[in-house]
């Protein structure tokens, strides 16, 4: 759950709800982080939170068997997620890791990684998705943001399945460098929730564009420069947050 390889302090250490009531092994990465990186002694307070629950202060108490009990005192409930969902053409695993982490840090409500016609089908069978590793990157993003709330994450469904299940009453934009007539920055958003569709590295196919239009998506672009998928996600989220007035 900690930032891999850096050894630098995370902003918030997160625990699953059930972990607060059972011992933590001395070798747990979070225990080592508190003692060795944050330089807290046993019994000292540190910032912690329950995933999708309250934030607060925690203390590690040594046990006779060498493990630790974790005492947690809640102080604040998590704020609501930003009313933004992403539908993303399944990218290569390293790109997906970056999106999972950074989009979570920006507080999106949902991330749907979908199979697309121009995407590489092998990406869906990578260890990132098969092993459940993806969730670790979401947790890292939340820890960075000093927030306990995690977005909904789905993967492996088709674009058609995901867009057919979207909520009504929202604004929908699909990023496209070829057929978009307006920049996202100047698009009018008059709905309380936004879904952004971002294609795989080779973009949308003609049938996918037709499908997105059928489901109410407006095509928009981020300017003349061609961006990496992970960069486009962050730029688009930032613009929509500003348009929605999300602090």
From TrEMBL:
Its main location: cytoplasm. One of its GO terms (biological process) is rRNA base methylation. It catalyses: uridine(1498) in 16S rRNA + S-adenosyl-L-methionine = N(3)-methyluridine(1498) in 16S rRNA + S-adenosyl-L-homocysteine + H(+). Keywords: Cytoplasm, Methyltransferase, rRNA processing, S-adenosyl-L-methionine, Transferase. Specifically methylates the N3 position of the uracil ring of uridine 1498 (m3U1498) in 16S rRNA. Acts on the fully assembled 30S ribosomal subunit. It comes from the Bacteria. One of its GO terms (molecular function) is rRNA (uridine-N3-)-methyltransferase activity. It comes from Opitutus terrae (strain DSM 11246 / JCM 15787 / PB90-1). It is found in: Cytoplasm. One of its GO terms (cellular component) is cytoplasm. Coiled coil: none annotated. Its EC number is 2.1.1.193. Residues 82-240 form the Ribosomal RNA small subunit methyltransferase E methyltransferase domain. Pfam families: Methyltrans_RNA (PF04452). This is Ribosomal RNA small subunit methyltransferase E.
